[in-house]
Each structure stands twice: as C-alpha cells, then as structure tokens.
Design goal:
Homodimer. By secondary structure, the protein is mostly helical. It has six helices and four strands. The termini are far apart.
C-alpha cells in the first residue's frame, strides 16, 4: 500500500479539500492584497461548490485507476472572491497531488461573471411583494428577504441588454429543479399579485 500512486485516493482528498474550503473560506484564503475582509465575508455567505461528475479509467473493481477525472462547479456572488477561492484551491490541489506522486491537470471549462440585480428593480419588487402579502393577509409582513441566487438564470444572459431583477417563489424544503419540488398555491397567488403590483408601478 505504501508504494501506491493512487489517483482515486488523491481525488477523494481533493474533493474533501474542496468541501472544506467552501464551507470555511476564511480558514483557507490568504490576505495578499487580492483578498480582503469584505471579499472573505462575501464568500462566507455565498460560496457554493459541487462535484457532480467523477469517472475513472480503466474502471475495474480490483485495479488502481490510471486516471480519475472529476468536475468542480464553484459559484459566488463576488467575482474577485471566486477567483481567490479558485487560486487557493488550485495551489492546494497541486500540493496534494505532488505529495501523493500523481500528476494533476486542472482545466477551466466555463467562466461566467456574477451579475448584480438592479437596485431600483429590487426595491420595487420588494415593495410589490409586501403589497401583495398585505393584500392577502391584511397585515404588514416582516421584511421581504433579498436573496443571492447561485443558479445561472436567463437574467445573466440578458444583463448586458437591460436591467435585471428576479422574484422567487419559495419551494418546500428549499428543493427546486427536482421531481420533489413543491410550491404552495398561496405562494403562487402571492407571487402573481406581486407581479401585478409591480406592473402597476410602470403603467
């Protein structure tokens, strides 16, 4: 066992490293002029990382793989923070691979900059949501939350053409894009009323 150069074991360590960095970026990132307090704070609240695919070759149950490939999806609402996390992750991945005497190749397949929703649209949507909830319940509700979305919505593609903003309808348990996704009829009704209230502002 001590003589093995096992890319599967190295991959397992790399994936755990990724999880640890994304759960606690402040424990990993260095303050070198490119990463400051506000960047680390932003990452602590928005950084999400996923390994969704892993493949091995030759993929036999009793053979140490000659090659292991896996994907990393890393998202944050701050481009500088995301780059800082990628820089730190890459450096540490190379260190782990060197220690385990396996080669490591990191390829960046896709980059998409974060898009900030228009502040005026966001304020109007918040007002419209509050108006809709007041209309339904007859009471003024608690502050409507403003959320960061880690998903790549169409709004990202449209942001260079126009102002963008989004209104989200909550899903039971936070599960979306899944057969288990479920929204309450009342929430759909509230969202519809919010859109009507928003449109009335622009008539």
């Amino acid at each position: 066992m001590s003589l093995r150069q096992d890319p599967m074991a190295a991959s397992a360590e790399l994936i755990i490293l990724l999880e640890s960095l994304c759960k606690s970026p402040k424990d990993f990132l260095s303050y070198d002029g490119h990463c400051n307090d506000s960047t680390v704070e932003s990452l602590s609240n928005s950084l999400v990382c996923t390994v969704g695919e892993i493949s091995t070759w030759p993929s036999a149950s009793n053979v140490i793989p000659g090659q292991v490939t896996f994907t990393v999806d890393l998202r944050a609402m701050d481009d500088m923070g995301r780059e800082a996390a990628l820089y730190e992750l890459s450096n540490r991945m190379y260190e782990i691979c060197a220690r385990r005497s396996v080669s490591c190749i990191i390829e960046r397949k896709h980059d998409a900059n974060a898009v900030i929703s228009d502040s005026e649209l966001t304020s109007e949507l918040k007002f419209a949501a509050n108006a809709a909830l007041k209309r339904i319940t007859g009471e003024i509700q608690d502050e409507v939350p403003v959320l960061m979305s880690g998903a790549g919505h169409d709004a990202m593609a449209m942001s260079h053409l126009t102002k963008v903003g989004m209104l989200f309808v909550r899903c039971r348990g936070g599960v979306s894009h899944s057969p288990a996704e479920h929204v309450l009829d009342d929430d759909v009704w509230a969202a519809g009323l919010a859109i009507l209230a928003f449109l009335e502002m622009h008539v």
